[in-house]
Automatic annotation (TrEMBL):
Listed name of the protein: EamA family transporter
Source organism per UniProt: Idiomarina fontislapidosi
Record carries keyword Phosphoprotein: no
UniProt keyword annotations, A-Z: Membrane, Transmembrane, Transmembrane helix
Pfam family, one: EamA
Record lineage: Bacteria, Pseudomonadati, Pseudomonadota, Gammaproteobacteria, Alteromonadales
């Protein structure tokens, strides 16, 4: 039974929310491990292909429920919500720490607000603009952090920001154009559509089969398959279940947990952590909180991990 927004979330919901944060927070470290043996393009393609394939049995029965008017919109959702970001994140992490990438991903709710205002005639309150400004300050601190406190811009961070803009477009498309479909149907069908070109590209457009024979390949292959199957398909099912148990506002709070998990796992894996990193992460989380306060639709705060 679905709980009302005023109900206290059950313990099961809190436990699943924590599990979701661990799964999605670890996805950036899994990308890092995948890049040991495979190229960024191979990691992105394998991630989407594996996620789409594993969801196929769940999604096939739903295909007949979809009308002709929905197909193009679902294809767009698959493109901007899954396909493009998967490659953007993988390319970015060839030059960015996994923890930093995880924190930058928390800009998704802010990107959703900006896209909603610019492209979908959505109004914004002053507090939300304050949140955007604080979040951008945090982003600058995060992507220029160095050991001696000097500023050194890493242009690969722009790829992560582009990915969060894709998520912003995706969430607004879902909210404004196909809100009559269930979340699981939207994400599953769009992901299935994205997985077909991803699989074709993986086997015909890359040297994946050659790289899969390297000594480091089993670790990298396992990391990316876990990323696709558990981090995308499995997390999607958990996410929708938590929404049913509680509401989108409660579930969207995972946005604040993901960057903390990502940064901690990065540090445990030997990545440096500077004071500037901490200040940047704090500013981004404060900015997201401002931009995602009550009065917004719960959908806007939901992080995308169809990844």
């Amino acid at each position: 039974m679905t709980h009302n927004a005023s109900d206290t979330p059950p313990l099961k919901a809190w436990l699943l929310l924590g599990l979701l944060a661990l799964i999605w927070g670890s996805s950036f470290l899994l990308i890092k491990k995948g890049l040991i043996a495979f190229t960024a393009m191979e990691v992105g393609a394998l991630r989407i292909a594996s996620a789409g394939i594993v969801l196929t049995p769940l999604i096939l029965p739903k295909l007949r429920q979809i009308s002709r008017k929905h197909w193009l919109k679902l294809a767009c959702v698959g493109l901007v919500g899954s396909f493009i970001p998967a490659f953007m994140f993988a390319i970015a992490q060839t030059q960015l720490q996994s923890g930093v990438t995880g924190v930058l991903n928390a800009l998704t709710p802010i990107s959703t607000l900006v896209i909603g205002v610019l492209l979908f005639s959505q109004s914004a309150r002053w507090a939300q603009w304050v949140g955007i400004f604080i979040g951008l300050i945090g982003t600058v601190l995060l992507i220029t952090a160095t050991a001696n406190g000097s500023f050194q811009f890493n242009s690969y961070a722009l790829l992560v920001m582009l990915a969060t803009l894709c998520y912003g477009i995706n969430l607004n498309l879902i909210k404004h154009k196909i809100s009559d479909l269930k979340p699981l149907t939207i994400t599953g069908v769009s992901l299935l559509m994205a997985s077909i070109p991803a699989a074709i590209f993986l086997f015909l457009g890359t040297d994946f089969l050659v790289h899969a024979q390297q000594p480091d390949a089993p670790l990298s292959l396992a990391a990316v398959l876990i990323l696709g199957i558990v981090g995308t398909a499995g997390a999607l099912v958990i996410f929708n279940y938590v929404v049913q148990l509680t509401n989108t506002v409660f579930t969207s709070s995972v946005t604040y947990l993901i960057p903390i998990v990502a940064m901690l796992l990065g540090v445990l894996d030997g990545e440096p952590f500077f004071l500037q990193h901490g200040l940047g992460m704090l500013a981004i989380l404060i900015g997201v909180w401002f931009a995602n306060r009550r009065g917004r639709s719960g959908l806007a705060g939901i992080p995308q991990r169809q990844k």
